[in-house]
Input
Amino acid sequence: MLQPIITFLMIIATGTLQLESQTVLDRVVDSMHMSHEHADLRCKWAYSTIAILVLMVGHVLQVTIWGLWYHAWGDLGSLRNCLYFSLASFTTVGANDLELKPWHRMAGAVEAGIGMLMFGWSTALLVDIIQRARQLRQ
Output
């Protein structure tokens, strides 16, 4: 009975970390203040690179909290296995060599679903950054 509640809280934590990544990204990009005369390829590259780094840090943190949760269960052995399983689930690749106990398996599937949503959200943010950089040309 406790597992669905914890899974729900993990979904909220994952979304919150993604929102925090978006907030950090907005602040960093806004602080760069790229002017029209300096909107060359180097600055656009910097916008995109920073966006990718900020979003990837967010995803790594999201994967880590799921991995720590799996580690607390003890189903997968080492923390390394738990983080690997979490990354494989989050990216929907799957970890064929590791398996959660039957009563925990739903969490891996939920993580895969939320991972797809978070990558979609990150893609939308990257598109926004690219559009901001293009607007500077005009």
Summary: The CA atoms of residues 55 and 123 lie 9 Å apart. The mean pLDDT is 89.
